[in-house]
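It is worth pausing here to work through a concrete case rather than discussing structure prediction in the abstract. The textbook approach is simple: state the sequence, then state the predicted structure, then interpret. We follow exactly that order.
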Amino acid sequence: MVGSAALAFCCWQAGAQTAAARSGGQQNGRVAARVLDTVDDTNRTMLRGNVHPMARAQFDRGAVADAQPVTRILLLLQRSAEQEAALRQLMEEQQSKNSPNYHAWLTPEDFGKRFGPADADVQAVTDWLNSHGFQNIKVAKGRTAVEFSGTWARCGKPLALRFATST
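Step two, the predicted structure:
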């Protein structure tokens, strides 16, 4: 039985934004595609600070079996710097009584259109997950999270994860 699983995700490097990608890779004229090439599983960057505090050697009880189901994995998609700045500005305006955006809340779908990744990027992520045999792939309405499931054998190598049973 797995008490908790420690995840250390790697992220893929996105290629530099070309003029062609900026003009053709935009979603509703707002969000530029950031995944410009086929994902290279060997080109990774380790993300720091995302390991559960209980994922320490003293709690390690050995490797998880390959057949162990892993459900509800969440992959969080980062906004561009421009989107983040625009979101912060909107949040300030929503709290300012003098702003036309005062209490002008967004639906999750509207939030995703304005502050989520380009359609092409969401497609690239879901295609990659499908190509590695992941299942139950669901993109959140706000488009900043993708939920999926698989087995430890499916998760370990493509996501560069180490799972261990713990107490």
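Step three, interpretation. The first helix runs from residue 19 to 24. The CA atoms of residues 69 and 151 lie 4 Å apart.
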